[in-house]
Each structure stands twice: as structure tokens, then as C-alpha cells.
Design a protein that fits this description.
six-stranded mixed β-sheet, 331 residues, globular, alpha/beta, 29% helix
């Protein structure tokens, strides 16, 4: 009896010691729930970080804190803020052996030993996506990949890449993640395209309209046939018209958009603004993923709330940007 009691006590001491050692720190594979849906199917968003070492992954530490702040920015943005209850936001922890995501493409002998290869010639995209699926518990999820340092900012498929040292977090979140990933919107800054609108381009745009994409672009230019004709002349939508635009490789002016192409955050990093058809597309994507019908009439009924906005500059959102001296800078 005494030996059994001592053995149990020894096991208890070992378990307690283990918990004590790990207390205050997350470990690789831990998933933290930042926000839970209460309406619809639950639109899953997963944060995954790279270049965050054990000290960064303390509970309440730099990794968790910055991801929580990013989630707050996301939930504060136009359209998103009106459907907060549709989203599940999770944070997966991956403890890197080495801190930072410095670029070693030109010096491969000094590549950081981190979790997903940030700074290496290629990210471990399959690992990122499979671990995001595990964290979300479903295949339909969108990913914010956070690098501890400067790894650029861009969107690829269902993953938006974010640098924790990014100065304009609002712009990154609104353009890269909400715009490209959640809303499936194209860039509206126009490059020096040489291509022309032919039958193939027209068919592509028409087909995209059918599935709720490229809603802000059309090859038509007549008020009674352009894709956003229902908003032209409608009260509250005085800015809506037919404006020249381009689309990646297409010559500027051969396509058209619903509001000046440089008025949107998808073109202009100063404007925290989505045009009416960008709002419509974002709203439709959200409703569809949440499992609700998404008709134009329902959108018009909803969009009244967005017409009350009077200042689409940075001013109303400046408090959403922050700096954190704990982020790795390479120094």
C-alpha cells in the first residue's frame, strides 16, 4: 500500500512538474480560439506564425498579442463588422527554434531554423495549408500567415502573408486579407497592360459575374446593361457611374468600373474604402460561406448602413494601427 501510494505521488510530482515547466507558454500545435461564430456555418479564419520562438509564444506574449490585435482590426472593417457573429477565428502556435524570418535567399548558409521556412527561397505552403485545416477542423478556411519580421505582404490562393513589422496594418488587412482572400477582389491599380478586350476576356468576365466575382468590372459601358446598372441613379449611390479601368494586363480604358478605380483600398493605400460593387461582392462571399442566400435585393437592404459613412480616409481607423518593439527587426 505504501509503495503504491509513493508511486502515485511520484507520478503526480512528475505531471505537476511538467505542467509547471510549460505553464505560461504555448507549445507547437496548440490552438487558441480568438472569436467564435454564433450565426450560420462559421467562416473559419486561422492565424499561423513563423519565426516566433518559445519566448515569443508565452501566453499573452508577442505572438498571441499581435494576432489578437490583427483579429480586432479584421472585425472592425466595413461589411465585416456587421457580420462578426459569422466568423470563427483561431490562432495556431508553432514554436520556431530560431527567432526571426530574415531573408537568406542570397545566403543559404544563414537560413533561420523556423517552422515554415520564412526567409528561405520557398515557404512550406503544403504544411501551412494542412496545419490550418487541422486548426480549423474543416477544409473551408482562410489563412493569415504571420512572419516575425519583414516577409512582404501579399495574397496567394487562400493564404494572405503578413509581416509583423508592417507599418500600415489596416491597409494590409483591408487590401490583402479582406479584399483578396475573403472578398476575392482583384487589384484595382492599373499596370501598363498591353492586352485588349476580346471575346475571351468578355466570356471570362461574364462567367466570373455568375459566381460572384469581378463584380466591379465590366466590358460593357452602357447604363442599361453594365453589371451595376441597378445602382446607377439610385438614391444614396450618386458616386456610381461608368469609369475607365484596366484589369492586370488589359489596356487602361478598355474595361470599366463602378466608381473611380483609385477611390478604393484595392488601388489606393490611403483610402479605407470599398466601392459599392466591392461591398456587394464581399457581402455575397460572406453570406454564401455562412450558408445564407445572397440576392441583390438583400444586399441593397443591408447596404444602407454603409451609406452613412462620411469619412473614408485613415482618420476613423488610425487607432487600429500599432507598433510593437518586441517584433524581430534583425538587429
Amino acid at each position: 500500500m505504501n509503495k503504491l501510494f509513493l508511486a502515485i505521488m511520484a507520478i503526480g510530482i512528475v505531471v505537476l512538474h511538467s505542467c509547471t515547466n510549460n505553464d505560461g507558454y504555448y507549445k507547437t500545435g496548440d490552438v487558441i480560439n480568438l472569436h467564435r461564430h454564433t450565426v450560420g456555418n462559421g467562416i473559419a479564419i486561422v492565424f499561423i506564425g513563423d519565426g516566433f520562438d518559445r519566448e515569443d509564444c508565452q501566453k499573452g506574449g508577442v505572438y498571441e498579442d499581435n494576432c489578437r490585435k490583427l483579429a480586432e482590426v479584421f472585425l472592425s472593417l466595413p461589411v465585416i463588422r456587421d457580420f462578426k457573429d459569422y466568423f470563427d477565428i483561431s490562432l495556431r502556435v508553432d514554436v520556431s527554434n530560431e527567432r526571426g524570418v530574415r531573408n537568406c535567399v542570397d545566403n543559404p548558409d544563414k537560413c533561420p531554423d523556423n517552422a515554415y521556412g520564412s526567409g528561405h527561397p520557398d515557404l512550406k505552403w503544403n504544411k501551412i495549408r494542412s496545419n490550418a485545416t487541422l486548426a480549423a477542423g474543416k477544409n473551408d478556411r482562410s489563412v493569415i500567415f504571420v512572419g516575425n519580421g519583414m516577409i512582404g505582404g501579399y495574397a496567394m490562393g487562400d493564404v494572405a502573408v503578413y509581416s509583423a513589422s508592417e507599418d500600415h496594418k489596416l491597409y494590409w488587412m483591408m487590401h490583402e486579407f479582406v479584399g483578396h482572400i475573403i472578398g476575392r477582389m482583384p487589384d484595382m491599380y492599373v499596370e501598363d497592360g498591353q492586352g485588349h478586350v476580346d471575346a475571351s476576356v468578355k466570356t471570362t468576365i461574364d462567367n466570373q459575374h455568375l459566381v460572384g466575382e469581378l463584380s466591379m468590372l465590366d466590358w460593357r459601358s452602357q447604363p442599361d446593361s453594365v453589371f451595376w446598372k441597378d445602382f446607377i441613379g439610385r438614391e444614396g449611390y450618386e458616386k456610381v457611374g461608368i469609369y475607365p479601368s484596366g484589369w492586370y494586363g488589359i489596356v487602361f480604358g478598355e474595361l470599366f468600373t463602378c466608381e473611380p478605380h483609385n477611390s478604393t483600398v484595392m488601388c489606393n493605400h490611403i483610402a479605407a474604402y470599398f466601392t459599392v460593387m466591392e461591398r456587394y461582392q464581399l457581402w455575397r462571399q460572406i453570406q454564401t460561406r455562412a450558408g445564407f442566400p445572397a440576392t441583390l435585393d438583400k444586399f441593397i437592404e443591408y447596404d444602407v448602413v454603409n451609406l452613412k459613412e462620411t469619412d473614408w480616409s485613415w482618420a476613423p481607423y488610425k487607432s487600429l494601427d500599432w507598433t510593437d518593439e518586441r517584433i524581430w527587426t534583425g538587429k
